[in-house]
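lol so apparently i was supposed to do this last week
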Amino acid sequence: MIKSLTKAKKINGIISLPGDKSISHRAMLLNSMSNGSALISNFCHGDDRNAMINCLRGIGVNIEKVESPDTEYSNDTFLVKGNENGNFSTPSYVLDAGNSGTTFRLVSGLLATQNFESIISGDDSLRSRPMDRIILPLTEMGAKITGANDNSFAPLKIRGGDLYGINYKMPVASAQVKSCIMIAGTKASGSTTIIQPKFSRDHTERMLKAMGADITIDNLTIEIKPSNLSSLDVTVPGDISGAAFWMVLASCHTDACITLKRVGLNPSRTGIIEVLKMMGANIHVSNFIEEAGEPCGDIKVQSSELNGVTIEGDLIPKVIDEIPILSLAACFAKGETIIKDAQELRVKESDRIAATVNGLSRLGANLKETTDGMVIAGQSKLIGTDVDTFNDHRIAMTMGIAGVLADGITEIHKADANNISYPSFWKQLSIITGKPED
Ligand code: S3P
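anyway here it is w/ shikimate-3-phosphate bound
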């Protein structure tokens, strides 16, 4: 699909977001390991969610879509039946995680606990992403795993069961990897200790605790002991990674006011708010509540005068999915923005450093790639042209926001990549910019 966009005159409105993808995935997978049934409401939308549901159904999990309770949320509700602490069934087909790294890595942690053989794979992008980062610790725990290209890539053949706890020092800060090890750790004998190099999102730790797991956290060290999980109803907060696109749009447009309702505000995810505030953005957060151990609230963003900043170090895992859209904000800022320590972006759904620099340069921005980030000279004039999404949902949505901020016509090729995480994105963009969808 090609999406044609022109500059928006005014941005105004209230947006409800899809449920947070990371929390939705964990709620479904951890409840599938529990001893009861749980309702998960405001579940995320998109192809990644279908990948998680299909993988879990493939090993015998009973997941049903049910009528949503009457709440302020408008998204789907699922009923998940726990598999009585471990009786999953041998899959009769190759489990397909599609484009979803989180599905692949978390489900692999679960498969490693099972005394049967399974194969898990994904699309071209997923099959090119590093999987040695989960193969090594799971193998050390006792799982038998073989993978493509010298045991480093999907597809993986996994025979699990009889795991034992390990002491693992993670080489990269990754929430997917630590979650995979924690999931395996709940069914290993003895305790599993994970030492993180930096903090990354902690939704798994929070949910495991809420489900009664024997987990302790001491600064960057997580210790998990064999645990039976109690089912937990979860109302998933709105996705802050989806909200990021609207926050940047409102900050960069000269006549804008957007309110985002019930957005997840877990401190390991609010880097986007921290960075935009550092840049001088006009952001106000209110109506704080807590949903299933996760803080959330409403965010109001208005037109702002932004300044360039340096984004590096411990901040990077807190904005890891928001760097493409923050790079667009940097194009509207006064002065230079430097992004470093972000080499992980090269192994996401696309090489997001290359894809972002490619798209924004085509639109006239003045930026260059470095090995671990980019350097962006601010206040460039963006002029519409044709750009590619590289089939990456976050690049598609970044280009979409660029398209309504740039002069002229922006044509986005493979624009339907947004369906991975945010199917209603183009519709909401047309509503918020007051332009009917073509
Ligand atoms: C995710 C963790 C992040 C993020 C991804 C979702 C998760 O990856 O980029 O989109 O749900 O655990 P890392 O494994 O690099 O932290």
